[in-house]
Amino acid sequence: MKKQKTDNSRLKRFMGLGVFLLVGGVCLLLPLQGAMGQQAKEKGGFALKVPFGLDDPAGYIPADNPLTADKIELGRLLFFDKRLSKDNSIACASCHMPGVAFTDGQQVSSGIRRQQGGRSAPASINRLYSKAQFWDGRAATLEEQSIGPFANPVEHGFADHDEMIAKMKKIEGYRKLFKKVFGTDITIGGVGKAIASFQRTILSGNSPADRFDMGGDEKALSPAAQRGLVLFREKARCTKCHSGFNSTDEKFHNLGIGWDTNTVDLGRYMVTKDPQEIGAFKTPTLREISRTAPYMHDGRFGTLEEVVNFYDQGGIKNPHQDNLIVPLKLTDQEKHDLVEFLHALNGEGWQHIASPAEFPK
Ligand code: HEC
Ligand code: HEC
Fold it and tell me: Could you give the CA distance from residue 307 to residue 313 in angstroms, rounded to a whole number?
């Protein structure tokens, strides 16, 4: 939530509008509109609607996977289709449910044959703005993340991607769609690109916090939430890690979650083998946070009050704890205000996304 960045992107948006009006005006003067419309369609360009408060998407979409309407729609089908699991019981949407900001409300998720994984499903919103995906950042891109769950024995349950592609190739409708979108038969690379494109359209912005902080709408936040915002940035030190417009530094930190159990998850260390990252996890976005309980990578906290108490105590001490985590000495009133502010981070940009009415045959 840096002021400067917003001003820039507001300026850009404003300039964008100017160009739009200019081009639109020319189109009305000369009977070119039909031709131009067709050109845009042929290129398949897709203008992503970005809610207020979020960064310009342009810099975040990889050059080799531009957004197109057809590709996004294919990705939506794949995301919701349970046939993309070994026994037709699980889709991405089973654990990332549209009704709850694309998480599942469970402490840890259940996959195929009700098997449980060891981590809580993150709200898969604003993934557009992250490079490293998963709690431990093991997928370097959203394309890579988008194919991981299929070959996970406790998620979609295929032995490998080849097994899934062979199953998909029996669905003629998918072969046609892949031909249309990629000009090829079904490939795992295409699956990844389509699902990643769909996921890039699941956004959350225009929250009361955005409207207050960047839109200058003084009434958007209650007085308690306004005090909470100041605490979030100052005394409670949350922005040391939950910084910027998506409330994350995109870095990995050890808060101590799990160090009070005998099954510590080593997190980022298992990916990098860097001892500095033992027990470190990615700072998650806090957008939609009051809708996406339970919290933390092991889903241990059911409420935001518990989360705030955890930080107030200085997390859970361990030899690898991040030194940004210190006891906060918040009063009860301050804890309450901070939670009020967290509730103001719910926004919009994902609610319109629903399961397809039917799937390719
Ligand atoms: C069985 C439940 C389950 C299924 C099915 C599932 N996920 Fe997940 N998802 C999870 C869990 C649990 C995590 C966290 C795992 C981790 O970080 O190690 C996760 C993490 C993610 C993330 C990372 C979010 C972040 O903040 O880094 C994305 C994106 C995601 N899933 C999308 C998908 C897609 C796309 C599919 C289908 C191909 C899918 N998931 C299938 C449970 C599931
Ligand atoms: C040192 C960096 C750091 C600081 C400071 C910090 N956080 Fe976090 N936050 C994280 C990380 C990393 C996680 C995930 C940790 C895990 O699961 O092991 C997290 C998780 C959370 C979650 C759970 C998110 C979810 O989707 O499950 C909430 C809520 C949260 N933080 C709020 C806050 C608040 C409020 C403050 C200030 C009082 C704060 N954080 C301070 C790094 C930080």
Answer: 10
- Tokens describing residue 175: 């072969």
Rounded alpha-carbon distances, angstroms, from residue 20 to 16, 24, 250, 315: 6, 6, 34, 50
The residues, ordered by sequence, that sit 6+ positions from 222 with a Cβ below 8 Å of its Cβ are 340
What stretches of the chain show up as alpha helix (H) in DSSP? 3-29, 33-43, 69-80, 92-95, 142-145, 161-168, 172-182, 188-199, 208-213, 223-233, 269-272, 304-312, 332-343
Indicate which atom in ligand 2 lies nearest the CA of residue 103: 26
Give yes or no for residue 281 CB within 6 A of ligand 2: yes
Would you say the CB of residue 297 lies under 6 angstroms from ligand 2?
yes
Question: 90: Cβ below 6 Å to ligand 1?
Answer: yes
Interval 145-169: pLDDT, tens: 999 999 999 899 999 999 999 999 9
Q: Which CATH superfamily is domain 208-343 in?
A: Cytochrome c-like domain (1.10.760.10)
**Could you tell me if 69 and 50 are in contact, meaning their C-beta atoms sit under 8 angstroms apart?**
no
Ligand 2 contact via 103 beta carbon (within 6 Å): no
| SS3 state at 292 | coil
At the topology level, CATH places domain 69-199 in Cytochrome Bc1 Complex; Chain D, domain 2 (1.10.760)
Q: Which two tokens stand for residue 169?
A: 């190739």
| pTM for the model | 0.89
As a whole number of angstroms, the distance between CA 254 and CA 38 comes to: 52
Q: Do residues 228 and 258 touch, judged by C-beta distance below 8 A? A: no
Pocket test for ligand 2, best of 109, 253, 321 (most atoms within 8 A of CB): 253
Contact by Cβ (8 Å): 282, 137: yes
The tens digit of pLDDT for each residue in 172-184 reads 999 999 999 999 9
Is there a cis peptide before residue 284, judged by omega within 30 degrees of 0?
no
* CB of 204 shorter than 6 A to ligand 1: no
